[in-house]
Write a structure and sequence with these properties.
71% helix; two-stranded antiparallel ribbon; Four Helix Bundle (Hemerythrin (Met), subunit A); Arc Repressor Mutant, subunit A
Length: 240
Amino acid sequence: MALKRVARRSVPDEVFEQVLADVVGGELVPGETLPAERRLAEVLGVSRPAVREALQRMAHAGLVEVRQGGATTVRDFRRHAGLDLLPSLLFRGGEPDLAVVRSVLEARLIIGPEVAALAAERANARLGPLLRDAVAALKAEQDPVARQRAAIAFWDHVVDGADSIVFRLLFNGLREAYEPALDALAGIMAAEVNRVNAYRALTDAITARNPTLAKRAAEDLLAPATTEFLKAIERLEEDS
């Protein structure tokens, strides 16, 4: 566990990021005991309250288990963490983790068609105009990052139409993870967000209240970006 002295600008965040990197990177394994709070503060050059705050955040994220008056042990984040950890996993060391990006896109490809089908099944009179306005806004955008944001706004309406709290929370988590990577993903996501007609087709299927057609239209919309990203991963692996 190669800890470094922490910059004063964001102490708990820096402590959190260091431990997160060691947990995700495997330097800290599940069941391993962290140094005592006082020792961590000494090594990191920060106050004990700052360490305590960071440990509480880590415990909330499922990275560690803090026992009152006892040791702080590392947990298996893959089994205990929630979607709120995704943004931290996506960008580590200032660079996007391609494996996590791939997971986010794959999750979209699986969840998106189901959400679209449910929205079609439960569509009300307000949903159609909202979706059509969102498509018009998407078409009007020329900047690739702004166009991605317009696409997110479109899907926000679809999720509302699905009227499912579980899908809403999943969407919120995926969006929070995805938004910091908009600049990095602009090239790959162009395969999706430039296809205005595909958004129109999905809108038509939902407003027609045809779940089967909506699911198929969503798959057609979401698949190209995932395919392009997987190809990009393969090229990077071949070049390495």
